Structure formats: structure tokens, C-alpha cells
Amino acid sequence: MIEEENWQNGPKFLCDGPDSWPKNKVSDVVGEDQRKVVVSMMTQKVKVPSDDEWRLEPSRFSSWERLRRVTAYLLCFVNNCRSETKNRECSKILTNEEIRDAENYLVRVAQEEAFSRDIGDIRKGRFVGQSSVLKTLMPRVDEDGVLRMSGRLSLIETLPYDVRFPVILPRKHALTKLIVRKYHTDANHAVGTNHILTKLNEKYWVIHGREEIRECENNCNQCKLMKSKVGEQVMTRLRRTLCNHSRQGSYEG
Ligand SMILES: [Zn+2]
Hints:
- The chain has helices at 2-9, 32-45, 51-54, 64-82, 96-123, 161-164, 174-186, 193-200, 209-219, 221-252, and strands spanning 139-141, 147-149, 167-169, 204-206.
- By secondary structure, the chain is mainly alpha-helical.
- A two-stranded antiparallel ribbon has the order 1-2. A two-stranded parallel sheet has the order 3-4.
- Helix 4 (64-82) crosses helix 5 (96-123) and helix 8 (193-200) crosses helix 9 (209-219).
- Zinc ion binds at residues 184, 189, 220, 222-223.
């Protein structure tokens, strides 16, 4: 009954003056603790992943192109998270610039992992240490933060920038292995170590590059398969030749 009266006429205190209305028990002033909770919840909602949280592990990828493209998409996502809504960009087709940024990012991370002390020295304007593998390469850090070699070819201004200042890649790093494998695969597993090294040096300088390429060739399943097929064909021909010789020998005897 009371509920029906409330439904039709509203609460009784509305018939009286505002002075007799019940006081609002909810405080308009947010306490320090409540403010902390609100800020914490807001921070959680718009939390931007740090570089360590989203960084991809190159050893989990089977190809350099795939790693580069996935990283490019992730970089777009992270940049959008860090931008205001009106400045966010989202395109399904990656631009050359976005792919190049992803490549530079991946290379920078690999170089930091392998040559952090040397990069620190270079940034401070010092020479790299006497025991460093970079000491003969005249290394420099470019405006994108990428470590590059500046040898004799750097003096020839007519050459492309990447040939004059090839990107230095560390030996045995997962990223280096992916890049070397790309060159090996692009050559259809058919050319020798020197050819791959020459093509590679048009853009990169791999520490102990020849050994890195040989390791790639020795571990390549496609190459192993091709070699085993060639071996089988040689053995089959050899067996046929031996059989023919033995038959001829038996007739002559
Ligand atoms: Zn191969």
C-alpha cells in the first residue's frame, strides 16, 4: 500500500518544504582514498603497453618479412594508444615508412642487446673499446638510432646510403639469422656463400658474416633435402654403371 502511494504521489517529504527534506548522505567531496581508486581505475583502462610488454621475440618467427610486418602493425597500435583519439591512424595496408620504422626498431633492439656498451661509448663521443668486435668498423649511430659501419665505401658519395653505411648486425643473434635466411631463401637455396655475402653487404654488415651464412646453409632443411636427392641420384647412376660393367665382364669371361 505504501509502495502504491509512493508510486502515485511520490514520497511524503515532497509535500513539505525543502528545509524538511532528508539530507543527502553521499558526500560531494571525494576523499583522498576514493580519488586514488578512481585514478587507478582510469589508469588501468587507458594503460599503454610498454616496449618490454609488446616486444616480439625474433626467435619465435620463421621469416624476417613476417616479423617485420607484425612489428609494424604493433607499432601502429602502440602509437595510436599513445595518441589522442583525433590523431589516431589506422590503415590496413602498411606504408613503406611504417615497414622501415619497424625494421629500424627491430635492428635497434638487437644492437642494444649485443653492443650496449659500444653504443653507449659512441653516444658519449668516445671510441669503442680495444676488445670490441666493432673497433675496425668505425661505427656510428645515425639519426634513427641505428648502428652503422662507416668504412672506405662511405667516402664514395655516389653509392647508395645503405652501401656506404651498412647496418651492423651481431653474430648469432636471432634477428641476424632471420635476415641471412631471407637472403638465402631469395636466392632459391642455389647460390654460394660468397654471393649471399655480397648481396647482404649491400645493406648489412654481419659480424663474421661468412660463418653466419655457412651456418644458415648447413641448418637449412630445404638444402639438406636437395642434397639428399642429388646424393640418391648419383648413387643410383653409380649402381647402374657397376651392374653394366659386371654383366660385360661375365660375358667376356
Ligand atoms: Zn637452403
